[in-house]
Amino acid sequence: MKLLQSKLFELPKLFFISNKAEIDELPIGVPFFYGDEHLESAVIRVLEYEILYQSALKSGFDFNFKKILRQNGFNDIQDFDWIRTEKLEYHTTSGGTITTAKINHKGLFDTFIEDVSCYVDINVLKSLNVFPIWMQDLEAALTTNIHNHMLYTPNSYNKKLGGMYGNMELQSLPRNLIISDLSGSIPKAVATMELTLAKHLGESFYADILFTGSKSILYTYEELHTLDVKKVYDEVGLNNEAVMFRKLLSSDDRVYNTCICIGDNHSPLASWHNCGSLSKEAGKKLCKWKINKLISLHTTSNTYLAGYSDMFEPKEVEIIKDWVTYLN
Questions:
Q1: What are phi and psi of 39, to 5 degrees?
Q2: Which residues have a Cβ under 8 Å from the Cβ of 110 and sit 6 or more positions away?
Q3: Pair 184, 233: CB distance under 8 Å
Q4: How far apart are CA 258 and CA 309, in angstroms?
């Protein structure tokens, strides 16, 4: 635990904590930022940007924020442009089957993560109604209101009052699930969005996260503090697999309130590498994970469900349409 300090400006009093156990040592109300150790310099830079940005706003004049940053010594900021999804080149077999995407996902992703030269005020975007509607739908679907899980039991006995005057009991909160396909067939803009939002959504809305690619890796809510976005992208890889995915879904009983599944037609039921294909009926029998609501974000279809949701039998299904157009 340390107080964040800048060599350029006096920062607001904010502690940086990389060990979750240290949070309990802080007095209630003391502001802090929790994250991995290597994020400290990035957090300091964001605070420095905020100071410059607010100062520029107070001037009342039009300003070039990137120019202001460079004038204050931030000469390493980069210009970054998205590559449109349809410009991705795919390597195909003679039969026309897509085998791998010929694009450097890693380099583009690293460039995006390191480029923090853009200031985005989410509240302003919401007030202007330019924030993607589907993102608000996800937020609403994952939000858990603790007041909905307070159960009043009118027959409970109160010793002090000597009668059956009721009691309030806190019920267990339902957990959510995010499944993120990071394989090579997923456009770079989509994979970047999945990774940059994953940790925030998981910690904010009580969710486990399952990344799948060449490997399938599950981060439970309790383990999200160990999630390194850049490392997990390299670790998962750009291929598809089904062995690890099927093993996770069949290993133990889990119940999730809402599952957000992001991906394309690729499915854990297909014959990937050293496993045979399964029918949907067989896959659903194998799966021990239960979900109440499935929200599907398919990268290319407004009618099909994302493939890695094929093993579930949700009670309710919602398809987010045309969402990829916001990322092109």
A1: -85, -10
A2: 230
A3: no
A4: 12
Quote the pLDDT of residue 168. 59
DSSP strand pairing (254-263 vs 175-181) = parallel
CA pair distance 268, 216, nearest whole angstrom: 10
Structure tokens at 117: 């030269």
H-helix or E-strand spanning residue 190: helix 188-204
Q: What distance in Å separates the CA atoms of residue 105 and residue 83, rounded to the nearest whole number? A: 11
Among the listed ranges 10-24, 135-149, 300-314, which one has the minimum average pLDDT value? 135-149
CA distance 109 to 89: 17
For the segment 145-180, what is each residue's pLDDT rounded down to a tens digit? Answer: 444 445 556 666 666 666 666 665 655 677 899 999
47-75 average pLDDT score: 87
3-state secondary structure of 210: strand
Chain Cα centroid distance, residue 256: 16
DSSP SS3 for 106 = helix
Q: Are 245 and 216 in contact (CB under 8 A)?
A: yes
Residues linked to residue 83 through DSSP beta bridges, in sequence order: none
CA 248 to chain centre: 20
Hey, what domains does the chain have and what are their CATH numbers? Answer: 2-77 (no CATH), 105-328 (3.40.50)
Nearest-angstrom CA–CA distance, 52 and 321: 38
The neighbouring-strand residues paired with 291 are 256
Between 289 and 63, the more confident residue is 289
Percent of the chain topping pLDDT 70: 72
Condensed to tens digits (0 to 9), the pLDDT of residues 10-22 reads: 888 888 888 877 8
Query: Distance between CA 139 and CA 142 in Å, rounded?
Result: 5
61 vs 310: CA distance, rounded Å? 54
Can you give the pLDDT at residue 82? 42
Confidence band of 105 (pLDDT split at 50, 70, 90): very low
Does the model's pTM come out above 0.70?
Answer: no
Q: Cβ–Cβ contacts within 10 Å for residue 172, how many?
A: 6
